[in-house]
Amino acid sequence: MARFVDKVALVTGAASGIGRAAALAFAAEGARVVVADINDKGGRETAARIGAAAVYESLDVSSEENWQRVIAAALKHFGRLDILANVAGIGVSGDFEEARLDDWNRIVAVNMTGPFLGAKHAIPAIKRHGQGGAIVTVASIAAEIGASDLAAYTASKGGVKMLMKCVALHCAEKGYNIRVNVVNPTFVDSEMLDPIADLYGSRDAMLASMSKLVPIGRLAKPEDVAKAILFLASEDAAMMTGAVLNLDGGQLAGFPAQHSG
């Protein structure tokens, strides 16, 4: 498949995990890719794996100045922008009453303000070539259900989901032909889980325990989420905007059986 020949995609959080998988997948289907992350080492590694079809740009998604610089660099390097994939995200767990304001502000800055700034500055760039495009934001099933020890994370993911619905309506009403959609993954087996592995005794024990919470019996892989991102960014999803694609392994379908004998 080569759904993205002559297209340019900007992927945030592309130094690892879902972002890296998405950047590699876009390139494999013909896109030129702006690899963006605050992790310079990992971002350059992703760009190097892609080769000449990629350029790395350091990006703090919470900085409007950074977004302006990176969007300008994308246009200078590749001449256009077609797709923005907002993948960068962070989370901090803990007791709500002990939550630190600094952690709250940092999570909201990355998970909500980052996609807000990305969409704000990507839309004019995508409009320039007059052929439309797509914005895909990775939220979480935490946008749909709460978690007592992840209040800031779930609030930010719920907020960014609704933000992108508003952006989708804005683009549709303006006639921009820019589709805006959201992916809600379940737990993803990526580096983001590493900090909590010790709570389970080992990483394998963590994966086994978390897999029991997913009806299909496993965590998502970064590549699973990347495929959803590419679908929403492609013409295969031409009639989808303001939509939420739940990539949850059945978690949001309901409770497991409680009364079977």
How does this structure look, described?
- With 261 residues, this protein is α/β, with parallel strands linked by helices.
- Helices cover 42% and strands 15% of the residues.
- The protein has seven helices and seven strands, in the order βαβαβαβαβαβααβ.
- It has a seven-stranded parallel beta sheet with strand order 3-2-1-4-5-6-7, with helices on both faces.
- Helix 1 (17-28) crosses helix 7 (222-233), helix 3 packs parallel to helix 4 (101-127) and helix 4 packs parallel to helix 5 (151-174).
- It is globular.
- The N and C termini lie far apart (48 Å).
- The mean pLDDT is 93.
List the uncertain runs.
none
Strand order of the main beta sheet, please? Answer: 3-2-1-4-5-6-7
**Annotation, overall tally of beta strands:** 7
- Structural class computed from helices and strand pairing: alpha/beta
Mean pLDDT: 93
Shape descriptor reads: globular
Question: Which range best describes the helical content: under 10%, 10-25%, 25-40%, 40-55%, 55-70% or over 70%?
Answer: 40-55%
Query: Whole-Å distance between the termini?
Result: 48 Å
Radius of gyration, in Å, reads 18 Å
Largest sheet: 7 strands, parallel
Please tally the helical runs, counting DSSP H or I stretches of 4 or more residues.
7
The portion of residues forming beta strands comes to 5-15%
Helix-strand sequence: EHEHEHEHEHEHHE
